Amino acid sequence: MTKLDPIEIQSPQCPVPLRDYPEVILAHGGGGKLSSELIEHVFAPAFANEHVTLLSDSTPLNLPNQQIAVSTDSFVVQPLFFPGGSIGELAVNGTVNDLAMSGSRPLFLTAGFIIEEGLQMEQLLRIANDMGRAAKTAGVSIIAGDTKVVERGCGDGCYINTSGIGVLLPERAIAIDQARPGDVVIVSGTVGDHGVAVMSVREGLEFETQIQSDCAPLTALVQAMLDAVPNIHAMRDPTRGGVAMSLNEIADASGCGIELDDESIPVRGPVRAACEFLGLDPLLVANEGKLIAIVASSDADRLLAAMKAHPLGRDAAIIGRVIEDKNRLVVARTPVGTKRIVSVPIGEQLPRIC
C-alpha cells in the first residue's frame, strides 16, 4: 500500500498525473493543462451525460420549441477593481461572452455572491452597480441570485458566480470541434491587455502608459460577424490560459493543427514591454474582451472587414491557419523563419485575474 491510496479516486479513468497531486493546488484552477486534467478525470466522469461531451464554454440544449445555450462561470479576481473594470463587470461580461461564442443571443443571468465579513459596504455597492451597468450594456437581465457571507479571512473580499441562458439561432453549428484544414484564424484585437492590467495593479508596477483591461461584452461584435458570415466554424474567448490555451483546445477537439504567424499577432506596445519585463508570453495571458474566430479561407476577408468595422474589432487580424496535423499541435512561425510550439500552459502565469 502506498501513502497515496487514501485519495479514493474510484474512476478507472483516473490518470497518473492526478496521483502526483494528492491535494488541489492553485494551478488546478488556472485554465491550463492541470485544469483540463481535473475536469477530464474528476468532474467529467462524475457528471457524464450527452450534454457535456465537448466541454465548451456553453452547452446547447434542445427544448421542444427552442434551442438555448447555458453557461456558468465563477470570478475570483484580485484586486476587485482594476484599470478598465471590476469583478462586477467581469462577472457579467465573462458569462455573456461564453454564451456568445456559441452564436447564441444572451438573455438572462443569475448571480451568486460569496462575501467575506469585513468587506466595505461601499465596495459591495460599487460592485453591484458595475454589474447592473454591465448587464444593461450587454442586453441581459439578472433575474435571480444568492448571497452568502463567510468569516473574515475566508473569502478574499468577494467571489461571484454567474450563470447565463441564451437563445441559439436555428441550424447554428459553431463549436470548437468544427475547425478544418485550410481555415483561417482571426483574433478580434490586441491580446494580453486584461491580465497585464490586473497584474500591474496587484504588484504595484508602473509603466509609461497605464494598461487598461479589455473587459467588454462581445455580443454586438459577434452579431455583426454572423451577419457578414453566418457559417463561422468556431469561436472562443481566450480568457484563462490566453490565446495559447484556446487554440490548443480547438486543435485538439477538431483533430487538426494550427500554425500562427508571430508577427501578425497584435500586442500593444506597453503590454509587450510589460510581458518582457515580467517574463510572460502574451499568448498565455488572459483576455476579457477578445475572441478567436475560425472561418473558411473564402470567408476570411469578409469576416475581417466586418470585425474591423465594429469598435471592439478595429484591431482584428488574421494570425494563422488550420493545418493537417495528426499530433494536433499549435505552432508559431517566428520572425527569423523558425517554428516554435505554442504549448498548453501547465497552470497559469498570472493566477486570480478572472
From TrEMBL:
Residue ranges of domain PurM-like C-terminal in the record: 180-327
InterPro entries, per the entry: HypE, PurM-like_C_dom, PurM-like_C_sf, PurM-like_N, PurM-like_N_sf
Pfam hit, one: AIRS
Signal sequence interval, chain numbering: none
Membership in a protein family: Belongs to the HypE family.
PANTHER family listed in its UniProt record: CARBAMOYL DEHYDRATASE HYPE (PTHR30303:SF0), HYDROGENASE ISOENZYMES FORMATION PROTEIN HYPE (PTHR30303)
Protein name: Hydrogenase expression/formation protein HypE
